[in-house]
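the two lines:
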Amino acid sequence: MEAAALPMSRAGAHLPAVGLLMRRAVYEVVRVPGAAIPGALAPTLFMLGLTATFGNLTKLPGFTTDDFMSFIVPVGILQGATFSGAATGVNLARDIEQGWFDRLLAAPVPRSALLAGIVLSASLRSLLPITMLLVAAFALGVEFPGVGGLVLAIAIAAAFGAAIACYSTALALRFRTQAAAPLMQAGAFMAVLFTTSYAPLELLTGVLHDVAAVNPVTEIVEAVRQGFVGGVTWGGTWPGLLALVGIGAVLFALALRGLRRTGR
Amino acid sequence: MTDYLRVVAALGRRSVKQAFRRPQFLAPILLFPTLFLILNTGGAGSAEDIPGFPEVNGILDFELPGTLIQCTMLAGVSAGISLALDVEVGFLDRLVTAPIHRSAIVLGRLAATAVLGLLAGVYFLVVGFLSGMTVEGGPLGVLVILVMVPLSALAFGAIGSALALRSGRASVVQGIFPIVFVILFLSSAFFPRDLLTEPAATIADFNPMSYMTEGIRDGVISDVSLEPVLKGLAGVALLAAIGIALCSYALRARLRAG
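prediction for all of em together
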């Protein structure tokens, strides 16, 4: 927002700082792969586990596909982005604990640019779990959704990862400790699962049905899913994009507010 | 013997207090299984219509036993993390130099895990009854739950503790968190064995978690029968034996290494 208010030339002048922060996040994965592997593998394990357990739900009348794995792949894609987004907040909390973040705040870079670098790094990192999941899914027979469907799914998921990174960043700035990690992970994890993740809305029951019906993330799940269970249409895409923009704007504003208050 | 039990009780009391003082240890035991219970009952709520699904009064009756086993597994992971933290901060070293039997150190932790399992069992029974669950087995069915759940927590606590003693690092124990879910998905914890897809259906036949869940579930969805309960207890005994043997081995190795 602050960056948007800047003249384009000035906003562009801070792009190298955004790029450096993103590159640092990638280095973290490369240098300490052991820390990234559980988060990268978890969505694939969940996809396989949920398919093994609930695969026969497709026998229910009204289920939109007869291949449960195709139905659940979009949930795994969004989980991959979610884990990356949550990890961004955990890493920021670690940087705050170790004092590195204070030094970053002293740099001659607008805080909006700092935030952009932090949250966009989550988008970049989310490509690792998403790629692992898609390789496993296609190897196990999930039908290719077409280039358009795949690009749309990955782009929406990467943007969702940035939105979740805003959420976890806001929490990291509020609590300033890695002990807040379960709050970051569980909140984001459940936002994706309390949707039409397991079954179409008409087949859900109880609290899950009621929450999924009003949860805007349901629209995002459906937008990512459309290529895997049918065809991509504008009618199936725009509600997801609208939800994504709304969630992203609110969470970005929250994170930016937290960042502006930090150290003042 | 009385002194030995007093040490076990004191260490167990400390572990229970620790869990209540640090919500990050208690939350995974209660919060995650509660959320998954809502997800599983809502997501598979229509599954009763699938041919071959057992006769139940409601999907909650079928899912709650799986949730209880999930809760005990997470209690085991939490126990392991707490013990690993004791290793990291040097508390275990101080205990080792104290004039107490070393097995009491592990047994105190396991006793606390069993107590937490029992409390979680009571919590889920209350949640279940408030949400409309029926226990067809009556008081005997409830008794089976209140016996099986703490014993399962103890067994998983033994495995978590073995991992903590072997690695000495909380992050390593924390790392098995996703594996808990995989093991559960490869059992009949959340769906009938006959309706799992392959290869999960075959693996579930050999997974002790299937028998532990079914031992509890039997008394919830029907009258209590001896066979499933005994099979469930056998599953618990097997895991506990493996866990305690691994604990013993890991503790000796840690002491040898100094």
